[in-house]
Amino acid sequence: MRGSVPYGTSGWVLKLNYAPGPNGGSCQKTCHNTRSYDREKK
User: Fold this and answer.
1) pTM of the prediction?
2) Alpha-carbon distance 10 to 22, whole Å?
């Protein structure tokens, strides 16, 4: 998993703040609250 991604044309870097979990993980970027996923949930 990448730690950051380029954003926009000015060279700004968006950190993902990814935290792995047992069946997925979560991220918290500066543009939204924490979002998570679980590969086992349907």
Assistant:
1) 0.55
2) 36
